[in-house]
């Protein structure tokens, strides 16, 4: 039986394309430990106070996202949410800091927080 290749993440290429703006937005508010949201439909990048942003998530995703954020902060990592209103997707990514070699932030992991069609928009 032939194994199929894992499905590639459709948002990684978009994140890479806007990476300088995303990390620039994070660095502008770094002392506040923001959550960055990248809206793939509008192309807008926003920084939000983490606590407010996380509280606005649905019950289904809030606890996981809070744990993920606390771990990211403890490790000095950057948390980015990708919002795709057209597909009703909200997906989080955590990028580890790698300043020692001048690389900035590097991809560490991602967790899909896709919302159901009944979820209200944030």
Explain the layout of strands and helices:
Blueprint: H1 12-17, H2 19-28, E1 35-39, E2 45-48, H3 50-55, H4 59-74, E3 78-84, E4 89-97, E5 105-112
Parallel strand pairs: 1-3
Antiparallel strand pairs: 1-2, 3-4, 4-5
At a glance:
This protein is of the alpha+beta class and 122 residues long. It has helices spanning 12-17, 19-28, 50-55, 59-74; strands at residues 35-39, 45-48, 78-84, 89-97, 105-112.
Structural descriptors:
single chain, 122 residues, alpha+beta, 5-stranded mixed β-sheet, 4 helices, 31% helix, 27% strand
**What is the mean predicted local confidence, pLDDT?**
80
Give me the strand/helix succession: HHEEHHEEE
Radius of gyration, whole Å: 15 Å
What's the helical proportion of residues?
25-40%
Largest sheet: 5 strands, mixed
**What fraction of the residues are assigned to beta strands by DSSP?**
25-35%
State the secondary-structure class.
alpha+beta
Shape: globular
Q: How many distinct helices?
A: 4
Gap between N and C termini: 43 Å
**Strand arrangement, largest sheet?**
2-1-3-4-5
Strand tally, please? 5
Uncertain ranges: 107-122
């Amino acid at each position: 039986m032939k194994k199929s290749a894992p499905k590639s993440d459709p948002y990684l290429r978009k994140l890479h394309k806007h990476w300088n703006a995303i990390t620039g937005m994070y660095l502008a508010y770094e002392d506040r430990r923001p959550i960055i949201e990248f809206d793939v439909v509008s192309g807008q990048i926003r920084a939000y106070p983490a606590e407010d942003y996380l509280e606005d998530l649905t019950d289904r995703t809030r606890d996981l996202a809070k744990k993920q954020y606390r771990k990211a902060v403890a490790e000095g990592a950057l948390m980015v949410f990708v919002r795709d209103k057209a597909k009703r997707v909200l997906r989080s990514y955590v990028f580890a800091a790698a300043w020692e070699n001048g690389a900035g932030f590097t991809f560490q992991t991602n967790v899909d927080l896709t919302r159901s069609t009944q979820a209200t928009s944030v």
